[in-house]
């Protein structure tokens, strides 16, 4: 079965949006258009999840999330992701600051892993990604780092309930497509 992230990175080539990422001065295989697509794609999936519209591995719909936050792009997370990606490791290696998703796309099959859990934490606020060619160009490593880091053992990934019903937990937020979005000041 193909992973959701095969779709995610396919969609990256389709979605169009604008963004300003001047602090992301290094090119880690990601340009500004790609950064915006990463945020849009991650938030698109989180929105589906929060609204109970995402399909889970067992074919069931996801349960609604009461306080799923929208993500913003973070250049420091991108820098950290690049440091991990350029190691060309085939196993995820979260840091003390960031949780990590690692997608290894092999030239032969185009298949990737399915670490959806890191995308689904309702407390996540930032994402940064990087790309590195590995194995003499036969593999592409896509690494995304997420913050804040979560300790998964014994914790719910997200609180269930009516979408956005608990956004006030985070302060001054609005609800957009089932996600808690920080109000612009």
Automatic annotation (TrEMBL):
SMART domains per UniProt: SCP (SM00198)
Signal peptide start and end residues: 1-17
Domain SCP stretches: 33-154
Source superkingdom: Eukaryota
Gene3D superfamilies: CAP
Name of a matching Pfam family: CAP
This protein's UniProt keywords: Signal
Protein name, UniProt field: SCP-like protein
